[in-house]
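hi! just following up on the protien thing from before. the input was this:
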Amino acid sequence: MQTLYDVPAPAKLNLFLHITGRRSDGYHLLQSVFLLIDWADTLHFTLRRDGQISREDLTWELPPDDLCTRAAHALQQYTQCDLGVHIGVSKSVPAQAGMGGGSSDAASTLLALNRLWGLNLPLGALQKIGLALGADVPFFLCGRNAWVEGIGDILQPIAVPMAHLVVVKPDQGLDTKAIFSSPLLKRDSEPAILSGFVEDAFGFGRNDLQAVAQTLCPGVTQALDWLASVGLQGRMTGSGSAVFARALHSVDLNTAPATFQTRLCGSLEVHPLWDWASSDD
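and the predicted 3d structure came back as:
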């Protein structure tokens, strides 16, 4: 059994995000396409044989119960495994950005520990654990770009044209709950169909959360305005505050405000760990 793994945890972008309704329990119904990109955290796993789960923050400080730690404890409890792990977390994907950084960390943790601990759980079991941690975790476990429906739990893998994208994160973050609880949020978008997206993958639809986000976070508008100033049509990803645009021409990222995190990213066809768990039940 190997005792050490170093694995990536890539971010995602929502190419569009429509809110089509709301369930009686308060959960919003949505449609979206999730696209994996090469902006990624790196997680380091070292086997512990004493059953303890520990974490070391290698960039900025994380909450004590971050999703890596919670995922490790959830997997250990689910399997009654008596092994432990030390996790080194090297963050790169910004928080409160709508890029799924925490959920991706949780998914990579489940995949890595499934191997490190020799558990051999199938993908379905990992997705069950992942869904309890967060709605986006099953997507990262699925390992492929996807058309997403329901509350984010219905995934249909799809092919998306490869692309370069300029991703901009303003210095302010956004609280997802504040956006979804806003009375200004549009909750009645007409359901879209996959064929409509396929015809115009990077221009399809809109982000229904963006208008509310712009009232809460001026940085979203500033980031969109900067993209427009360099000839790109931007859109917010997820609940923000990051925005993105397809890079149809070269862009001098140094012209962005110094407080922004700005990066030219490439899309991914599959997650780097897409084959780390068997799809057989």
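The two ends are 23 Å apart (CA to CA).
The first strand starts at residue 4 and ends at 22.
cheers
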